[in-house]
Amino acid sequence: MNGLGLPVKLVLTPGQAADVTQAKTLIEGVPFEVVIGDKGYDSKEVVAAIEGQGGEAVIPSRKSTLAQRVIDWARYKDRNLVERFWSKAKQYRRVATRFEKKAQNFLAFVHVASIMILLR
Questions:
Q1: Domain for residue 4, yes or no?
Q2: Is the pTM of this model over 0.90?
Q3: Which of 7, 51, 99, 100 is the most buried (most CB within 10 A)?
């Protein structure tokens, strides 16, 4: 998502795949200054990839992590933009219920829903 809560890149994964597995794919080729993520993206490799591209990682550490990272909590509050986008996208029945059986068709409908949200 960009700073306005609009999607920049969408990657479809199986339901059982962890979010962190696609983090590097999501930031690849996208210019950014800050990457905000939830605890699901807490990984040394992800933080190193973000900082390697010159960005700041605003990702809170998991409770089980020994070395807790200091993050800007005021900036972390902007993560709600992602949640609000998905709330809007799920207003479209085919996205909310995953009506399409093929992954490429479902991703296409997610793109259509994203376009409709962009046009509002």
A1: no
A2: no
A3: 7
Half-sphere exposure of 50 (CA within 13 A, CB side): 21
The answer to whether the Cα torsion of 114, 116, 1, 77 is positive or negative is: negative
Name the residue range of residue 65's domain.
Answer: 19-119
Angstrom distance (rounded) from CA 115 to CA 14: 23
Residue 45 belongs to a domain: yes
Task: Dig out the tokens for 99 from the structure.
Answer: 């009506």
Tokens of 100: 């399409």
State the pLDDT at residue 40. Answer: 87
User: What phi and psi values does residue 111 have, to the nearest 5 degrees?
Assistant: -65, -40
Q: Cα separation of 38 and 79, whole Å?
A: 8
Write down the residue that tokens 């699901």 correspond to. Answer: 40
